[in-house]
Design a protein that fits this description.
6 helices; Alpha-Beta Plaits; four-stranded antiparallel beta sheet; single chain; 2 domains; alpha+beta
């Protein structure tokens, strides 16, 4: 009895193609959802078009020729990998603005001055906490600046309670001018 030839397409090439295509379309989908939630309405439809085109192409291939468990596993693994890669890319892009709220005791109120000196707009409000008077400070920062602000907080005021939340939109405000943006706008001049 003669052995059947190994079907490279069905067992190797198609599952690999499905895996890579799912990574691409789910990565785009993840980024599209994040862009939509952050109000980036111009690029989201384009990402959605490419995402669905890839998805339809993959489904057509699976229903036409992949009748094996490896292709189905590749589909699921590509979905999981694409989700992870999409979140990783979005984290690196760091698009959007955040609001940082801190509750300070009177002795920690210097944090507002430190953040102002770094160029951040800070609003402070006198309030009453569970153990007496406190200061609430609010600042809006670019997501790219969050590590610097958290480093400032932890560096000088490690016991402060603070929260960080994403903003959908913001108008006006005081934001530090990043050195790379300053250099692009005004070549040859130093940032303030």
């Amino acid at each position: 009895m003669e052995a059947l030839p190994f079907d490279w397409y069905a067992w190797i090439f198609l599952p690999l193609l499905v895996f890579l295509a799912r990574i691409a379309d789910v990565t785009l989908g993840t980024i599209r959802i994040i862009f939509t939630s952050r109000g980036k309405k111009n690029i989201a439809p384009l990402l959605g078009f490419v995402e669905v085109f890839i998805w339809v192409s993959v489904i057509a291939q699976i229903t036409r020729g992949a009748h094996n468990m490896i292709a189905y596993l590749a589909y699921a693994a590509g979905f999981a990998s694409g989700t992870y890669i999409g979140m990783w890319i979005e984290e690196r892009l760091a698009i959007g603005k955040l609001v940082i709220r801190a509750i300070l005791s009177e002795s920690q109120a210097g944090l507002a001055d430190v953040l102002r000196a770094a160029g951040y707009g800070v609003t402070s409000v006198d309030a009453q906490g569970g153990k007496g008077p406190v200061k609430l400070i609010y600042t809006i920062v670019n997501r790219k600046d969050l590590p610097d602000v958290i480093g400032t907080i932890h560096g000088g005021y490690p016991k402060i309670f603070f929260t960080v939340e994403e903003l959908r939109s913001v108008e006006q405000g005081v934001f530090p001018l990043r050195a790379d943006v300053w250099q692009a706008a005004f070549p040859g001049r130093k940032a303030k």
